[in-house]
Design goal:
Blueprint: H1 8-12, E1 22-27, E2 30-40, E3 51-57, E4 60-63, E5 68-71, E6 76-79, E7 86-100, E8 119-120
Parallel strand pairs: 1-8
Antiparallel strand pairs: 1-2, 2-7, 3-6, 3-7, 4-5, 4-7
């Protein structure tokens, strides 16, 4: 397949639900996902994968046991595997996630926010 330019603004405009990642691309064995966040997520970790959060719009707090991380638009952080964390968004935040295809959004937990089948935009 030939490469295509992806407009983040256009893709984010296609959905409104929070905490439900959408696949917008693939890089090797990883997905590029878009997600809108608002409110508090659950404490969790990923036993086998690192996770990268890139903030496009809004301000994201990621709580960890040792340090809280505050991300503004244009900031990113890599959360190492096995590190407990909890994303918190006071107001809506738009985030790009780069993570292995095996990564489950709730990591080591399964609950009502777990998304096992992700929509492709």
């Amino acid at each position: 397949m030939p490469p295509e330019v992806v407009s983040l603004a256009e893709k984010f405009a296609l959905f409104s639900e929070h905490w439900s990642p959408k696949i917008v691309g693939e890089v090797n064995e990883s997905y590029v996902k878009l997600v809108k966040l608002k409110g508090e997520f659950v404490w969790h970790h990923h036993p086998n994968e690192d996770e990268m959060f890139l903030v496009v719009k809004g301000r994201l707090l990621i709580e960890t046991p040792g340090k809280d991380l505050l991300l503004d638009p244009g900031d990113f952080v890599v959360i190492p595997m096995k590190l407990e964390h909890r994303p918190v968004a006071k107001d809506e935040v738009e985030v790009v996630l780069f993570e292995p295809k095996s990564t489950l959004n709730t990591g080591n937990l399964e609950n009502e926010r777990t998304r096992t089948k992700l929509e492709r935009l």
